Amino acid sequence: MSSTKDFLDFVIDQIKNKDLVKSKKMFGEYVIYYENKVVALICNNKLFIKNTKSGKDFVEKEFG
Description:
Blueprint: H1 5-13, E1 21-26, E2 29-34, E3 37-43, E4 46-49, H2 53-62
Antiparallel strand pairs: 1-2, 2-3, 3-4
């Protein structure tokens, strides 16, 4: 099942600094970039944040 644009929009709406975020559709799913680094994936309408320094920084800055 592919992820929907509505779910991507919902996730992006939760982010404080939307201007630092970009997304790209790949194989029916989405990749989320923060400051030009891959930090998360949306697969089957679920958000998966990479367990890396960039991913952790993204969560702390935008959701913390």
